[in-house]
Amino acid sequence: MSIDLTLVGQFIIFITMLLLLKKMLYVPLNDAMEARAKKIEDGLAAADAGLEARAKADADAEAQIDAAKFKAQEIIAAADKRATEVKEEAVQKARVEAAGIVDAGKEELASEVNRAQQALREEVADIAILAAERIVGEELDAKKHAKLIDSVVKQGFNAA
Amino acid sequence: MAEQEHSGGIAEHLQYWTYSFQQDLPVDERNPFMQIHIDTMLVSGFVACLILGFAFWFKGRIVNGVPAGVQNAVESLVGFVNDTVRDNFPVHNPIIAPLALTVFVFIFLCNFFDILPAYLLGSIAHGLGAPAFRPVPTNDLNLPVAMALTVFAMVLYYEFKLKPVHFMKDLLLQPFASLLLMSKNPVVKLLGVLLIPLNLTLKLIEEIAKPLSLSFRLFGNMFAGEVIFLLIASLLLADNVADMASFGGVVSEVMGLLVGLAWSFFHMFIGLLQAFIFMILTVVYLSIAHQPVEH
Description:
The structure holds two protein chains of two kinds.
Chain A: H1 5-136, H2 146-159
Helix pairs in contact in A: 1-2
Chain B: H1 2-13, E1 18-20, E2 35-37, H2 38-59, H3 70-88, H4 96-112, H5 120-127, H6 142-162, H7 164-173, H8 177-182, H9 186-194, H10 196-236, H11 241-245, H12 247-290
Antiparallel strand pairs in B: 1-2
Helix pairs in contact in B: 1-10, 2-4, 3-4, 4-12, 6-7, 6-10, 6-12, 7-10, 10-12
């Protein structure tokens, strides 16, 4: 149990082993471990960045959907408004057209009535002349007695 | 008589296989530094070659990707050492972790030789003509002292390199002189100067106690463990076939086997613990040397 030359031998063995072990085992293994740790760290950072980007994209998409919904609502409202306007315009136009048709009908009716009255007058005049001829026994000149006939017809109509 | 034989046997097995470069001189007159323990050198050299051979083999098989098999185990060990150093060290020093790893692995593997049967290697060495053989190199004070002195030298180197003024002040003025020198009274100042040698002595004792405690703790534990192995073998195992064949001999053999086995496991744990303690104290002493000076 004494300190002797073995001490020097142990110094040499220990220091040699320390230097060689550092060079052959510790440094390469530690480099590999650090490279792997860095790779994992980068991967995790990339995954975090991906998650962040996805969250941002989700938020953007949601904002765009909201904007699109708002715009769609605006378009629908405008379309409703326009439809109402078109409908009102159409109704108004239809009313005007209907009024026009009614007026035209009325006018046509009036003219038809007038025409019918005129025709009736003429027929009545003819009948009256015919009847008068039979009663009087002589032929009446239509042109000559037109004034008379008209007054008779008028009276007849008025009486009717 | 039997006890004398046993104690003689134990003492005989505690001898080193020593070679002296002064064979012509009487044993008492020989210079200790002209003799060497061949068994310690052989076994520690074998362990070192084993570790370096493994490192050489392993170096070509290191992968950056997913580790498997041996690399997993080695990475766990290196990771454990790195964590220990990182927890204790204030700054990065590239030599500390390899030093801690070397200390731990080397001491543990040297201690591991204690698992061999107590008299086995000695008897084989006797058979091959060697006068004695101690299989556990950490039982030889030279190995723990060499490692502890290496650590101590590194501590002194970093103390001088990183904070020379603080270290010299610490060496000369602590614990007594510092306050005395701050006094304005010239007599007290003189007393402070006179106390410098006392401070230096106390500080040197404190510093030298570090490698001493470091080395003697390891040596004492492993030496005591080996002595207990030898005692178990000497007291409980039979000396000859006639004793072994008797009832008492069988009981004694069984007891010896069980007690020896139990002590083997316990001693392996102690070997692991001592390797860890040596490593952690190495890191702590070097960490103290790296601590920044507090103003």
